[in-house]
Design brief:
The chain is α+β, with helices and mostly antiparallel strands. The protein contains four helices and six strands, in the order H-E-H-E-E-H-E-E-E-H.
């Protein structure tokens, strides 16, 4: 609220969750089968414990064979690993997860709707949306223009 990036009070959390749910519902649909895609940075010698990540998130994550290239010139080498869970998006069903992202207790999450062919990816301070066309992007930007940061860089 008021271009504030991080909520601090119960009222600010309520407003942030209201906004996240409005955006996610518009992008994903009112009730939608989605894929929750989780990415984590792993070390070659220390792979991600997806069973622990599943417990932490409250969803059964299935590791994938996808991985991202090594990051920069890290020593030891690190890379992205991905896992997927099938979830049903409905308004407020994922509030605890969205709040954990807002509090930076979770990260690297996105929801993909196979019906809408769009993505909602919350992060601390906002959300990225991947939509089908630039026209749709512009429509959504106009719809929520009062929620956007007034800063030139958008943050």
């Amino acid at each position: 609220p008021g271009s504030k990036r991080y909520p601090e009070t119960d009222g600010e959390y309520s407003e942030a969750l209201l906004r996240h749910n409005a955006v996610a519902q518009t992008v994903l649909g009112a009730t939608s089968d989605c894929l929750l895609i989780v990415n984590r940075i792993a070390l070659e010698a220390d792979p991600i414990d997806w069973a622990e990540e599943s417990r932490s998130l409250g969803f059964t994550l299935e590791p994938t064979d996808m991985w991202g290239r090594p990051l920069d010139d890290d020593d030891p080498p690190s890379f992205y690993e991905f896992a997927i869970a099938k979830v049903i998006w409905t308004a407020h069903a994922l509030d605890s997860l969205i709040r954990a992202v807002a509090d930076e207790r979770q990260h690297g999450l996105l929801l993909f709707s196979g019906v809408m062919h769009q993505v909602y990816a919350p992060y601390a301070g906002g959300a990225d949306l991947l939509v089908a066309t630039t026209r749709r992007r512009d429509e959504l930007r106009a719809l929520w223009s009062s929620w956007l940061s007034e800063r030139d860089d958008g943050f």
